[in-house]
Amino acid sequence: MRESCGLFGIFSPKPDLNIARTVYYGLIALQHRGQESAGIAVTDGEKIKYHKGLGLVNDVFDEEVLGELSGRAAIGHVRYSTTGSNVFENAQPIVVACQRGTLAVAHNGNIINTCELRKQLESKGSSFRSTTDSEIVALLLIERGPDVLHACLDAMHSLQGAYCLLVMDQQRLIAIRDPLGFRPLCMGRLDDCVVFASETVALDAVGAEFVRNIEPGEIVMVSGSGVESYRVSSSKNAFCVFEFVYFARPDSVLENVSVYSARERAGRLLALEQPADADLVVGVPDSGTVAAIGYSNQSGIPYGMGLIKNKYIGRTFIQPSQKLRNLGVRLKLNALGELVKGKSIVLVDDSIVRGTTMGQIVKMLRSAGARSIHVRIASPPIRYGCYFGVDTSDRRELIAAILEEKKIEQLIGADSLGYLSLEGLVNAVGLPSDRLCLACFNGAYPLEVPSICTKYLFEKE
Amino acid sequence: MRESCGLFGIFSPKPDLNIARTVYYGLIALQHRGQESAGIAVTDGEKIKYHKGLGLVNDVFDEEVLGELSGRAAIGHVRYSTTGSNVFENAQPIVVACQRGTLAVAHNGNIINTCELRKQLESKGSSFRSTTDSEIVALLLIERGPDVLHACLDAMHSLQGAYCLLVMDQQRLIAIRDPLGFRPLCMGRLDDCVVFASETVALDAVGAEFVRNIEPGEIVMVSGSGVESYRVSSSKNAFCVFEFVYFARPDSVLENVSVYSARERAGRLLALEQPADADLVVGVPDSGTVAAIGYSNQSGIPYGMGLIKNKYIGRTFIQPSQKLRNLGVRLKLNALGELVKGKSIVLVDDSIVRGTTMGQIVKMLRSAGARSIHVRIASPPIRYGCYFGVDTSDRRELIAAILEEKKIEQLIGADSLGYLSLEGLVNAVGLPSDRLCLACFNGAYPLEVPSICTKYLFEKE
Amino acid sequence: MRESCGLFGIFSPKPDLNIARTVYYGLIALQHRGQESAGIAVTDGEKIKYHKGLGLVNDVFDEEVLGELSGRAAIGHVRYSTTGSNVFENAQPIVVACQRGTLAVAHNGNIINTCELRKQLESKGSSFRSTTDSEIVALLLIERGPDVLHACLDAMHSLQGAYCLLVMDQQRLIAIRDPLGFRPLCMGRLDDCVVFASETVALDAVGAEFVRNIEPGEIVMVSGSGVESYRVSSSKNAFCVFEFVYFARPDSVLENVSVYSARERAGRLLALEQPADADLVVGVPDSGTVAAIGYSNQSGIPYGMGLIKNKYIGRTFIQPSQKLRNLGVRLKLNALGELVKGKSIVLVDDSIVRGTTMGQIVKMLRSAGARSIHVRIASPPIRYGCYFGVDTSDRRELIAAILEEKKIEQLIGADSLGYLSLEGLVNAVGLPSDRLCLACFNGAYPLEVPSICTKYLFEKE
Amino acid sequence: MRESCGLFGIFSPKPDLNIARTVYYGLIALQHRGQESAGIAVTDGEKIKYHKGLGLVNDVFDEEVLGELSGRAAIGHVRYSTTGSNVFENAQPIVVACQRGTLAVAHNGNIINTCELRKQLESKGSSFRSTTDSEIVALLLIERGPDVLHACLDAMHSLQGAYCLLVMDQQRLIAIRDPLGFRPLCMGRLDDCVVFASETVALDAVGAEFVRNIEPGEIVMVSGSGVESYRVSSSKNAFCVFEFVYFARPDSVLENVSVYSARERAGRLLALEQPADADLVVGVPDSGTVAAIGYSNQSGIPYGMGLIKNKYIGRTFIQPSQKLRNLGVRLKLNALGELVKGKSIVLVDDSIVRGTTMGQIVKMLRSAGARSIHVRIASPPIRYGCYFGVDTSDRRELIAAILEEKKIEQLIGADSLGYLSLEGLVNAVGLPSDRLCLACFNGAYPLEVPSICTKYLFEKE
After folding, report:
1. Which residue among D185, D206, D238 closes a domain?
2. Within this chain, do residues A199 and A302 fall inside the same structural domain, yes or no?
3. Cβ separation of B459 and A47 shorter than 8 Å?
4. Which of A418-432, C144-158, C386-400 shows the lowest mean pLDDT across its residues?
5. Which of C:20-49 have CB within 8 Å of A?
6. For residue range C311-336, what is the model confidence (pLDDT) as tens digits?
7. Is C457 within 8 Å of C128 (Cβ atoms)?
8. Do B and A make contact, counting contact as 3+ CB pairs within 8 angstroms?
9. Is the pLDDT of residue D315 over 60?
């Protein structure tokens, strides 16, 4: 399961030699939101320069490149990883110039009316270099120009779906969050600079102070004249609950709720809803660790690190083949035999998508001597695909969309399987359920989901 | 002095697994026309895929990438080298999609009415991702769509300057040469495939047979229905004489004239026009070698390799600094003392641009014992900048635009200096002078040269 | 603080195409023991081939290289990382050939009588290509040949210090552990193959079964004739307690003691010895996590992940400079404000070396709102340098060797500071104290420590 | 056909920050003698540092590395290229330390009594890390120490074969040439520094003045006390004639004979010995170019560049496969149709080894329209393998060792084939035949050739 992207932007009232470096550190703090590509665009008030590339932030930028990117405002972007892809064109920020001006755009989310928008833009003469929705957003904005602010306000009436945007022209930095507020975006202050970031951890990383979240439907524009805010009407909210369940770093605060606390509470409620007669609580690292701590805290069953992760398994790892294939997940995770031997274990994870990894982990714990294994999931079964930025749109890959819980329990080989209820998850997060998007669990999409636009005009290497 | 680009295209009547590989070999044969970036786009009849990157053809492509680019038609491009630049966006082919379809475009030349065209395109809603004229051409074509052929015909009335183009949509491959025919473009046949290339050497490299040159103002379209040709009116021609003087590989045939023969004749005529009382004819490798052979053949003065080039001096070569700076050109060229000692030498090169290298060579030959050095140049003094694809647009760098011949002779330290006359050069080439662009020598630009468009909207790293 | 190395070896009764691949996976499981270089040597019964390189196991090996290394026995090695070094010669295994045969040697540990041995070897005609003690070991073994077994037995009387060795000739694989048994080495079985590894996690990773530890002073030789064991007299043992404190992976079992359990018990005993009036137990990730869990389990004070580590901070990370330097440790660790705010915290780590990082962490937690911070260290103060494989030989860098505890408390800014007693640590490990090396804590070196051999004959890049 | 190596050394009376940089430029000038690996060792009077790596000089060294290698004396080495090999251990200089001191050794040539020497060294306790003869030389020297000069003198009585050596300890730089003087080695002066190089072109490149050749059997030692020379008895000489035929750069002067002149004279004599009724003389670039010029000068038949080489064909070039294999040599060489069409051609090359390439070239010229092709080779048929540094030791690959001239003529498809006589070649070089090694032509090996030592103790990747 993968998130779309991470955003970081900064506006300085005066020229700043280190502006790209600050974005660099912000992006490193957001690296968990995307490892495919990274990019930074900078304006010095007259020209927009940028650098982007495939790989981790560390790989794309070096001292020399950062040194050339001084200016007064900057936006940065990290994009999620697709195995084997090598698609330079998809890297962001997208920088586009036309009669109405020049814009750099960074986008996190997923637009669902891309077919329609692309047709409209094409009918007005726009041409495309990629198949990304982010390019559509950039062209929509530039097409509505030259007044960037009005273009943004206008675009918000056309765009449907999930979008947090950082938009920069030569003089202005604009942060936008869609009316339903699917994805997080917050504002901070670093000395006399205004900072925007997808998660508060990026503010912490650069030493910025949290000011507030960008509101759903809000446009915040920073320029030499200061900070201005605009709103489009936004009747309901739909913050992606999966940000709490999995995506965000535990030390982030989203919608004023600590992600760590939400996960810990989810673990506690899971213990109440799905108790188990066990000797030890084990979390699947790193996704299930916090909920496992919560489960232990609530149930009084001791918490132990029964599974250890090998942190050196990188992306170029050579897969085991033939005779060695039975090594499976064992290279990435190892069971701590001494701890689990003879024990009845509560095995906690944040969610189950396809179920294959969980099956291997259960098997590994049994080989290590666990007496019984009670799998507890700190969120409800995922039964519906996501159209708003999570890469689970094909329901056929979701085990809970196909099988009943009892069958899943058998498939993964657990002695028992228990999910947190949707009510429990909402309570754990602590936000009203009408402010959350829970569609992957209950199918209640906050926006009508159109048939997907599959007519790709060209494909890239 | 640097040329713009090299083009190679192929259309196969049936799917061909090796189509990108053929383009790869074609581009390697054209590598002398550009070393900055390389790219290949392929269509399988439905989708256009591409791969491009910075560096030599060998560096950009490997077996794996070529293996993924099978199809029925393909175009490839090599671009000239700029020290230290790293501009992925400028790599070609440019692939662009809009309402009217999808196009891949590869361009060799230089458009001079870019300001005007860009304004027009912007006023109709086009947006840009780079500052290259090639992107303008691509957008112009796609904007005039969806009938690619008519778009091409139409675009030829708007485009001013030098352009050879290979244009490919999902089903068609189109070769275009501007009405003045500045740059070369030829057609060949390889089994049942139609092939296009900037120079005939690329046909030779892939084993294709030369069919004919694309005519100035001609559009050749290859599709499943065969080969069709269209012409726009073209009152005069202006084939760049510098292709004969320097750019093209000597084994190419341009406008049905062998480059080698033209250079050899230039050397012969130079010997007649600018005789010298000497013992040995030496060419500056590799640019002056052929003309030196011609000079020797005509004059009867023996030809000798008095200068040897180190072929291992690459682009990452560490420049001599401080104390060692006096090594200068010596690392790249070495004088053959045994041969030149005590001799009166005719030193032949194709042209003089700034004069610094020639000065160092003369000095080196003198240190090696040459008694006297008579510099002979197989083309006239370059007095005017080029706006049609040669990187000499700043007249202030052209020594012959600033100094008289006698002064240049002193500056480079030669015992005598003689240029081939313009008439001589034209005779050597053997084409009527009204079919050639001789502007860099006589300032007679075949098109009115506008003030250059310097308003760059954004700059890239 | 850094360990020396990790070892992995395998002997198969029949030719095995995948033998290097198995070593590869074993080394990845041992990667935490060394990230500077990696190497694998393989014998097919007649020739010894090898491949080694700088970097992580993943970077050094690819499918092609592994494919060429088939055979019947293989040994592999990972070496610790030194910033900026690029010393290919230090990579292991070292392969050396002489009259008496050919040997591949991989070494973990540190020899202390290198000066003397080198002089002896030199006096007998040996020559060196590096300054490593591992080369000395290899030469000592080959010099005592040609009977490898006797050479090994003999060498054990000469070698002083810590050494686990894997030695391989064309037909035999030999595992050696020094008489004091400083470093771990275990034996396992994978199908009909014999496997050796520095830690049991490597057995787990390749699916091998643990058989037993190699005993201090033991030589285990595997050949076509089976497994033979030999012992030299070994009056006392001195297993490095720091393997339990820090080096080994928590899921390893050393000397039949689970590392995780030892750390958890250390945390429990720390809670008893050094109680604190607090609301929350926080471990410094990853080094203090297990002890923190133990502290929480014993004290009943809830455990929480008050510090989150950024797992994407790699080795090429650009350090903050000038204005941004105050970011300090914040890029690597972040305090979880919501959790720690207003709380009195027990902050647990495994040890304090220089004290600078701990000071920054305390400061960070205070900024995040912690009310009071009680630092608890799950081992005694490190007061003595190590000469047996740990990179802390310069006492001047050890804060506890210079300052009293009260001063350290002030320096790191803690409300209180408490160390586990040596007795407590020994009890936590559960081995008799006379089987452990505790020298870094009590200065009781199990071997007389000679003045270090500093006369480096040559230095390498 | 490949040469072994190139050497460059320098001794400065005072510390020189640029000493490694000078070696770097010297090695670039010698790059044609070896492309597999490069290395430089430097002494500052106390320590010897070095850096070496696989690849071209340009790839192995950068500003940073050169900056760290300052000192008073330095030696450098380039090694020949073997496709696909990756043998770091074979890179030179070899730096070795033992009781008697520390030495850096760089070697060009081939030792033929390696078996015997290795056994002797092994019996005295030496051990090996590679299978190269250069390591044997280094160990032999260090074993005979500690007086380096005497060790060198002594070693010359043991070493049999071809060897030019640069040997450096902390204070001295020694140049050695074997008593038969197979390979070239010269001495120059650069300001107040003494310089040694395999060919004079390297002196030219760094701006040094040629002083004299090192004599066969001579040892030249440079130290703070100045330059000293020693000789061992040397009854006859055997300078490799193939250095003149192929290896050396044409602008080098070997044994006081200009390589260019020797080749040009060989071409002239070839024209006298093997006249042809032809219209054009064409050389195979670059190996046959100079002889072709000589043939033309003598015969009066015009010289023309009938074959053009693609200088961008690098080592990573993707080979044509299946359907495209018939492209063969065409990607590397192209025939100049315009020039050769209808002509009777004299095609000149320096030598024929296996004959396959020559066959393809003849075919290519015929396709390009050549009427008849008379192949002329500027040296005699190669009928015997070389044991002194040229990679042609397997006679079965030498076409002239298997087939008669008439058969070779047929095989390569030439209208006629003519070789220069051995007498002609010796006359062209201009040295007495008893000062040359002509073994590859006449089998008269200057040293008894032992059966080759094939018992490789270990193989490296």
Report:
1. D238
2. no
3. yes
4. C386-400
5. 21-22, 24-25, 28-29, 31-32, 35
6. 887 655 676 665 555 566 788 899 99
7. yes
8. yes
9. no
Contact C127 D49 (CB under 8 A): no
* Cα separation values, D47 from A138, C119, C451, D151, D455, Å: 60, 19, 22, 20, 36
Assess whether C218 and C278 both reside in one domain. no
On chain D, the residues whose CB falls within 8 A of the CB of C460 are 49-50, 95
Structural domain boundaries enclosing B353: 260-311+326-430
Residues 49-88 on D with a CB inside 8 Å of C are 49-51, 65, 68-69, 88
| Residues D177-208: tens digit of each pLDDT | 999 999 999 999 999 999 999 999 999 999 99
The answer to whether the Cβ–Cβ distance between D310 and B206 falls below 8 Å is no
Classify D182 in phi/psi space as left (phi over 0), alpha (psi -120 to 50) or beta: alpha
Q: What is the CATH number of the domain that holds A190?
A: 3.60.20.10
Write out chain B residues lying below 8 Å of D59, CB-based.
Answer: 316
Please check the confidence at residue C453 and state whether its pLDDT lies above 60.
no
Contact D/A (≥3 CB pairs under 8 Å)? no
Q: Count the domains in chain A.
A: 2
- Asked whether the predicted pLDDT for residue A82 surpasses 90, the reply is no
- Residue D1: pLDDT band (50, 70, 90) is very low
The answer on A265 and A227 residing in a single domain is no
Task: For residue B350, give the amino acid letter.
Answer: D
| Mean pLDDT, residues D127-143 | 86
Across the interface, which of B98, B124, B127 has its CB nearest the CB of A122? B98
Q: Please state the ipTM of this predicted complex.
A: 0.89
Q: Check whether B218 has a pLDDT greater than 70.
A: yes
- Token pair, residue D59, equals 């790839």
Q: What is the DSSP letter of A89?
A: G
Chains C and D touch (3+ CB pairs under 8 A): yes
> What CATH number corresponds to the domain at position B407?
3.40.50.2020
Min CA distance, B332 vs chain D (Å)? 8
D80 and D118 assigned to the same domain? yes
Q: Supply the pLDDT for residue B199.
A: 97
Confidence tier at D460 by pLDDT (50, 70, 90): very low
- List residues of C with catalytic annotation: 5
Find the CB nearest A48 among B96, B101, B458. Answer: B458
Q: Is B193 a catalytic residue?
A: no
Does the pTM exceed 0.90? no
Residue B437 covered by a domain: no
Co-location of B227 and B282 in the same domain: no
Structural domain includes residue B344: yes
Catalytic residue among A5, A152, A186, A386: A5
Beta carbons within 8 Å of D356's beta carbon, 6+ residues apart: none
CB burial of B6-20 (b: ≥16 within 10 Å; e: otherwise) equals bbbbbbbeeebebbb
- In the three-class reduction of DSSP (H, G, I as helix; E, B as strand; rest coil), residue D85 is classed as coil
Kindly state whether residues D114 and D179 are assigned to the same domain: yes
pLDDT at A101: 82
Secondary structure of chain C: what % helix, strand, coil (to 5)? Answer: 35, 30, 40
CB pairs < 8 Å spanning C and D: 98
Nearest to C248 by CA among C34, C8, C13: C34
> In terms of CA atoms, which chain D residue is nearest residue B61?
D318
3-state secondary structure of D282: strand
Mutate to test the interface with B, among A61, A92, A94, A127 (most CBs of B within 10 A): A127
CA dihedral (A282, A288, A290, A293) in degrees, to 10, reads -20
Q: What is the dihedral of CA A142, A145, A148, A149, to 10 degrees?
A: -120
Question: Which tops the pLDDT comparison, C414 or C456?
Answer: C414
Location of structure tokens 């057995």: C203
Picking from D51, D61, D121, D127 by the largest number of C CB atoms within 10 A of its own CB, the best residue to mutate is D127
**pLDDT (0 to 100) of residue A339:** 93
